Amino acid sequence: MTFIRVNLSTGTVKAQEAPTRYRLLGGRALTSTLVFEEVDPTCDPLGPDNKLVVAPGLLSGGPASSNHRVSFGARSPLTGGIKESNAGGTVGYQLSLLGVKAVVVEGAAPEGRRVAVRVFEGPGGRPAAEIADAGAWWGKSTYEAGALIHEAHGAHCAFAVIGTPGEMRLPAAGAMHTDKDGVPARITARGGLGAVMGSKGLKALIVDPGSRRRVDFADRERYHAGRKRYVSNLRTTPATAETYPRFGTAAMVDVVNNLGGLPTCNFASGSFDRAEAINATALRETILKRGGDPSHPCMPGCVIRSSNVYVDRCGNEIVRSLEYETIGLCGSNLGIGDLDDIARINRLCNEGGLDTIEIGATLGVAMEAGLAEFGDAEAARRLIREILQGTVLGRLLGHGAALTGRVLGVKRVPAVKGQAISAYDPRAVKGLGVTYATSAMGADHTAGQTMREAVEHHKPEGQREASVKMQQYCMVFDSLGLCVFAHNAVKDNLEILADLVNGRLGTSVTVEDLFRQAREVLAREVEFNRRAGLTEVYDRLPRVFREEPLPPHGLVFDVPDDELDQVTKGWAALVKRDRAGAGARGAGK
Amino acid sequence: MTFIRVNLSTGTVKAQEAPTRYRLLGGRALTSTLVFEEVDPTCDPLGPDNKLVVAPGLLSGGPASSNHRVSFGARSPLTGGIKESNAGGTVGYQLSLLGVKAVVVEGAAPEGRRVAVRVFEGPGGRPAAEIADAGAWWGKSTYEAGALIHEAHGAHCAFAVIGTPGEMRLPAAGAMHTDKDGVPARITARGGLGAVMGSKGLKALIVDPGSRRRVDFADRERYHAGRKRYVSNLRTTPATAETYPRFGTAAMVDVVNNLGGLPTCNFASGSFDRAEAINATALRETILKRGGDPSHPCMPGCVIRSSNVYVDRCGNEIVRSLEYETIGLCGSNLGIGDLDDIARINRLCNEGGLDTIEIGATLGVAMEAGLAEFGDAEAARRLIREILQGTVLGRLLGHGAALTGRVLGVKRVPAVKGQAISAYDPRAVKGLGVTYATSAMGADHTAGQTMREAVEHHKPEGQREASVKMQQYCMVFDSLGLCVFAHNAVKDNLEILADLVNGRLGTSVTVEDLFRQAREVLAREVEFNRRAGLTEVYDRLPRVFREEPLPPHGLVFDVPDDELDQVTKGWAALVKRDRAGAGARGAGK
Fold first, then answer.
1. What distance in Å separates residue B168's CA from the closest CA in chain A?
2. pLDDT score for A549
3. Is residue A152 part of a domain?
4. Does A535 sit within 8 Å of B533, measured CB to CB?
5. Is residue A89's pLDDT more than 80?
6. Surface of A (541-560) touching B: CB under 8 A
7. Would you call A399 an interface residue with chain B, using a CB distance cutoff of 8 Å?
8. What is the CATH number for A134?
């Protein structure tokens, strides 16, 4: 597997065999390790000293379903801490076909130059890369730029592209990735990695796999045995066989609303009176009636197919895929109870490569401050257009909920470490509150989703344990390139994961090895943040979540601070324990 | 001496004898100690858990000239760290006449209530306080509100009042204090303490000394002996006898411009081609020609008289007092070379109680971002009016240079810990660079002014030592209530300070005792910041000052980082050394 290093300041490109010490690191484990090792934690996140690290998961490219996710990593301009954000689609898939383990983009294009990095099949079938001119794409929306990229480099290319907010270095900007149909509909959304691309003058990463159609396996038999069990589990587990394919992530609308945790009118309530108009049933029926696709795979070979293609009354696509987080943050959180309205907001965000979580939370705060009325979808779109255009107001909103709330003087600002809380109010889903507070990533449900854990979400007890467990699971999945939705199908047969890894790489890792490595990376991420000046003071939810009872149940977030500190301090302690254990085992051999 | 504690949440007022352990603490030493002891460093600076601590200097109220300064302290909404900001004028004087050692304002007025705290002569001549309604003054400028305060409570009252930016909790807001003529022309400017007042619903602190005309002395003879030497020194030292009375702080314009350190067009240059139009000579001649006052005392009994009253062509007052920092930040830094223009900008700031340093730096950043042309004074005033009115743009600007620069995407942002750098470019005056970076106060020349130290300002050598020395001096002066301009007159006879203190209090402190206490408080301030999450990562100048050479000399800031860390780590080490020394002396007795 190859490391590709592109230095945009010097214009140099290097492709070299990845050092063996990174062999078991992929996806988030690899981006976070490289950022930890190579990026000065006090550098300007929007300066040339930051690095954008792109790494497909360890299993990416393989035929095992839902395993092509790709991680982007850097120091975040939104949180100031370490950041990883991953997406489905085809970038990870095609990088893996080429044998690329990571692309590290360093430096920044000279003043006024706008570039793309193109990865392709070089001489001898080895991966190569070049810096291409992107001047013609600059200033264009992700869809427009995407079409031009396909025109210039072929429609078979995968790409990740930024919109104008990323170009303007606004920290609510991510990068849009091609899905399996070549539509820039998937997103490495969180933490402003699109702004990091923009700060480097990097409009797009383009991946042309050339003649490559499959990845190699060190132990094909073992891999396929694992794969068989994995796919069989996916097809027999209710969540992955029924719920996700049928309803997608929107199934969460009713679940979370019933828990009283659906963000409503800037987290003023956990219950939305029009939830039925925007829930999974409404979504599915609307899509079916209009001839859209209610069960779409975002990446090749995915059997879960949790995505959708949302169309208008005439059957024309508005957006793909309308997900729960968008419905929660850009719908109920803005008092908007109409799927068409939400889809159009989503579309505008996608055109800009904007994180719908951050934008939904930001607009909620802006509405709270009186910049628009809750429920006014047209006003919401007008505010997003301000971001796309980069007006002063747009630049403010494009800096996300925390900064917007600070400037506008709003008391209830749903953010941790400068990053917006996802669509689960932490007063009602307390395990996620622990994750939001303690993850090095800032508030991010994908860093440790506890919704499906056997805890009473309303009670403070057991939430720390649930979050600690799921933060490890999420790290393992994000490192393998596996969609976390597969979690339910393998959680009782985790050895499948080891089989897939060993089959692919010819290694002999155990499940415990994978989790031990996950803890090491989690500890590394926290350590990066500490060096960046993010002490445990920042590992807290906003006080308002402890102080203001959430209707309808009147709950506050009440997991004690010392439990939060146990989490962040815990990773290093667990690593120490792991190493002592390994030493003891080694001594006993 | 009395501590007055006012809790605005509960409406309670308590006056009690100050604990004896605070006996030697006044001004900044007292505010920082009380903030350290009583304020949660992670509280919301704009929430009810923050406290506003008001403390006159230890010598305040006495007849020794230039000694009535009063400190305001709190957790800063601008920096997130500990903050002290002091002003001349009459608030400190009159609090001391009443025998008040500190006023601690806790909590916040109930939603919708706007209040003032009035301190007055209670039964038996003892100081008392009440919470008065300030509803009629809310929404008014400092001048308008000040006139109404005098109308309601008598023109003999001193007060500190906030303008609309403070009411709106904008962190560029300070509080305007009455000068000796009762004009709200002095300011506790820095760090957003006006916003802290606004967050508590506190429009003004009013001080009515009643029948009190003088303070008591424990050893009148010793005090007056000290005072005689002190005043004699003031009258024979060139700086205090000639420069300050004749030219005021504006004398710095030529000095700093010649050093190539005068902020010009958002710190793009250290040399301003129209410096002659705004220097001390131009200021003095303009004032004299028009019938203003070129040498005005800001507090009763001051022999330095460094202030001025700046008038228009018809002899009508525009502003008092036009100071160097304002000329530098709101003049040359904005490319504005006209004293009338600068005075009118200053006036607008004073009406809002805005810190002219923060505002000048912010407008420089805004001009750099293209919101106005450098040199356009009318545009500058228009932007300030946006702040006074609280538009979205105004709220952004009212959050200061650092946040404005971040949102507008400006590279050269002159701020440390979120607070704007004063009118000495740290590339040309490197000792101040050390102070800006390392002071717990954020970038603040008054925390350790090195301009008059015997160092080569352009060279990195010796700057750490100069800053460390002056940070101690400034702490001593700020704690005594002494104007730092008196420093030159006593620096070779520091025992005068001990005489004044001992004469006033009946103590037997040495000069070394005063400096030892200063180091203790400096260490306390740094420790507060650490607990607030401001690690040494924040004790840095913006990188651009290390990287971008400053015209005309091409210097960068090049004092090594480890020297900066030596300063902040140094206070605790010095305190340890001091205590060990005290122990050794104690053991030898």
1. 8
2. 98
3. yes
4. yes
5. yes
6. 543
7. yes
8. 3.60.9.10
Q: Is residue B396 part of a domain?
A: no
In this predicted model, what pLDDT tens digit does every residue of A32-75 receive, in sequence order?
999 999 999 999 999 999 999 999 999 999 999 999 999 999 99
Of A395, A408, A409, which has the smallest distance from its Cβ to B409's Cβ?
A: A395
Number of CB atoms found within 10 A of residue B565's CB: 15
Residue A9 contacts B where some CB pair is shorter than 8 Å: no
Find how far residue A8's CA is from the centre of its chain: 25
Least Cα distance to B444 among B454, B453, B433 occurs for B433
Whole-number Cα distances in Å, A253 to A267, A331, A446, A452, B102? 15, 11, 17, 14, 55
- B235 found inside a domain: no
Output the average pLDDT for chain A. 97
Distance from A371 to chain B by nearest Cα, in Å?
A: 9
Residue B136 backbone dihedrals phi, psi, to 5 degrees: -75, -15
Strand arrangement, sheet containing B184-188: B127-133, B115-121, B202-207, B158-161, B175-178, B184-188
Amino acid at B255: V
Residue B176 domain boundaries: 2-207
Asked if A412 is an interface residue toward chain B (Cβ–Cβ < 8 A), one would say: no
pLDDT of B586 reads: 59
Is residue B409 less than 8 Å (CB to CB) from chain A?
yes
Instruction: Report, as ranges of residue numbers, the positions in chain B whose pLDDT lies below 50.
Output: 588-589
Q: What's the pLDDT at B583?
A: 72
Q: How far is A408 from chain B (nearest CA, A)?
A: 7
Residue entry with tokens 């829930």: A279
Please judge whether A47 and B538 are an interchain contact, meaning their C-beta atoms are less than 8 angstroms apart: no
Indicate whether A437 belongs to any domain. no
Taking only the tens place, the pLDDT of each residue in A139-176 is: 999 999 999 999 999 999 999 999 999 999 999 999 99
**Closest CA of chain B from A323, distance in Å:** 29
CA distance B506 to A521: 62
Q: Which positions in chain B touch A543 (Cβ < 8 Å)?
A: 44, 47
Alpha helical stretches, state H, B390-533:
392-397, 401-408, 430-438, 463-480, 487-490, 495-505, 511-531
Pick from B421, B429, B496, B438: which is nearest to B472 by CA?
B438
> What three-state secondary structure class fits B128?
strand
Residues 6+ apart with CB under 8 A from B561: B540
User: Tell me, what's the ipTM?
Assistant: 0.95
Q: Is the pLDDT of residue A557 over 60?
A: yes
The backbone torsions φ and ψ at residue A564, rounded to the nearest 5 degrees and listed phi first, read -65, -45
How close, in Å, is residue B52 to chain A by CA atoms? 19
Predicted confidence at residue B588, as pLDDT, reads 45
pLDDT at residue number A582: 78
User: Is A532 in CB contact (< 8 Å) with chain B?
Assistant: yes
Strand pairing category for A307-311 and A317-320:
antiparallel
**Cβ-based contacts of B537 with chain A (< 8 Å):** 41-42, 531-533
What CA–CA distance (Å, rounded) separates A15 from A123?
12
**The predicted structure's pLDDT at residue A589:** 42
Give the whole-angstrom CA distance, residue B278 versus residue B327: 7
B430-438 and B463-480 are packed helices; what angle lies between their axes, rounded to 10 degrees?
60
Q: How many structural domains compose chain B?
A: 1
